[in-house]
Task: inverse folding
């Protein structure tokens, strides 16, 4: 089955700096890569996603890049703010329009943004 | 629209006892997922339903875990008997359609502590 590795496990940055979280996946058939943000004691919430026909996607301060050849994708947060502090999870799945769709998550990155 | 609802939010039981969790997905969402999130890890899929049928239960410990979605709407997940290692947050998620790359929306989770 799919295996998703996520690095680093913890990341501490100063407010205003950029943060980068990287993930690799094992199944070359995976074609959907969402990123979730989970604040302490709360539910995971989708912040951005990318599909395999796109190499990069940006939404304000957040961007995701995908390299299908190398089977890795990354989350980039620019101009970090204290409210960006949370655990971030990457995930991968094969969306086939049928029954094979399921997310495999990485182990998460605890991002701390210091004021 | 209302989000995914789960209850209870917290549950403390002793090992070998039974416990049940309830989930009500977003209205109109055909696919429902149960995940187990152990502290410090990403969510792990336990079971996926499409309407009232099971699509994937390959990671469900069937000797002690069971789940149903009888009318294709809300769902229950049961553990009987519970073990210490079942202590985790149990997350329910739903998507609009059965496959492809639809966004998964998560509920607030049920935090289970097994003593």
Result:
């Amino acid at each position: 089955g799919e295996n998703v590795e996520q690095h680093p496990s913890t990341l501490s940055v100063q407010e205003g700096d950029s943060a980068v979280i990287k993930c690799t996946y094992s199944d070359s058939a995976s074609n959907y890569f969402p990123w979730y943000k989970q604040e302490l004691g709360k539910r995971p919430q989708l912040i951005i996603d990318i599909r395999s026909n796109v190499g990069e996607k940006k939404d304000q301060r957040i961007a995701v890049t995908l390299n299908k050849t190398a089977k890795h994708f990354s989350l980039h947060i620019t101009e970090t703010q204290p409210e960006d502090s949370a655990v971030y999870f990457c995930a991968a799945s094969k969306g086939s329009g049928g029954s094979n769709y399921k997310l495999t998550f990485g182990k998460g990155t605890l991002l701390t943004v210091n004021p | 629209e209302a989000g995914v609802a789960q209850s209870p939010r917290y549950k403390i039981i002793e090992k070998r006892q039974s416990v049940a969790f309830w989930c009500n997905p977003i209205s109109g969402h055909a696919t429902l997922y149960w995940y187990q999130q152990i502290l410090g890890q990403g969510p792990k899929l336990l079971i996926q339903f499409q309407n009232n049928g099971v699509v994937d239960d390959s990671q469900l410990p069937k000797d002690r875990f069971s789940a149903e979605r009888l009318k294709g709407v809300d769902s229950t997940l049961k553990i009987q008997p519970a073990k210490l290692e079942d202590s985790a947050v149990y997350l329910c998620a739903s998507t609009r359609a059965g496959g492809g790359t639809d966004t998964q929306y998560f509920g607030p989770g049920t935090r289970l502590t097994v003593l």
User: Anything to note?
Assistant: The mean pLDDT of chain A is 92. Residues 24 and 72 of chain A are 4 Å apart (CA to CA).
